[in-house]
Design a protein that fits this description.
The chain is of the alpha/beta class. The protein is built from 8 helices and 5 strands; from the N terminus they run βαβαααβαβααβα.
């Protein structure tokens, strides 16, 4: 199964992607990890990404798509994948689909984890306290949620228009949410 996992920051995407990876036997492709690995390995795309990050710039969509396409060339994705952290906006969703269709690995399902914003603020405040994370202050979290609402939330509409979207309730125990995600794949 070829899956895109969507949801606001703090919705549990990373946790759920790791569990789905185990249950489905397909790789979890985190764009953040892809980027870090390419930079660490010093690949040509990694060097370009490092130059952008060192200059304080965002890594371009073109570069991210290149990293994703490169990763999709590995044998382990032939049986499927769980893509997490991308696309983050409508333009990226369309470009991603073009790339994945060209390499004959199109998205089969977009799973959107739905979690109430106040619940997310509480979750991330707890995580910030436990892990001493400065990127999870309430102000930063609310800003990240506003950016998500504005830029990333429309991506769900895109996948819905293609009959690929499954909205999944992201509240409950980790196990309950994971079972809902698996059920949504049927």
């Amino acid at each position: 199964m070829r899956i895109v996992l969507l949801g606001p920051p703090g919705s549990g995407k990373g946790t759920q992607a790791a569990l789905l990876k185990e249950r489905l036997g397909v790789p979890h492709i985190s764009t953040g990890e892809l980027l870090r690995a390419a930079v660490a390995a010093g690949t040509p795309l990694g060097q370009k990404a490092k130059a952008a990050m060192d200059a304080g710039e965002l890594v371009s969509d073109e570069l991210m798509l290149g990293l994703i396409e490169e990763r999709m060339g590995a044998d382990d994705v032939k049986a499927g994948y769980i893509l997490d952290g991308y696309p983050r906006n409508l333009a990226q969703a369309r470009a991603l689909d073009e790339v994945l269709e060209r390499i004959e690995l199109p998205v089969e399902k977009a799973l959107a984890l739905g979690v109430d914003e106040e619940q997310i603020v509480q979750r991330l405040a707890k995580r910030a306290a436990e892990e001493n994370r400065s990127d999870d202050t309430e102000e930063v979290v609310r800003n990240r949620l506003a950016v998500y609402r504005e830029q990333t939330a429309p991506v769900t509409g895109y996948y819905e228009s293609r009959n690929l979207l499954a909205d999944v309730d992201g509240l409950g125990s980790i196990e309950e949410i994971n079972q809902r995600l698996v059920d949504a794949l049927d």
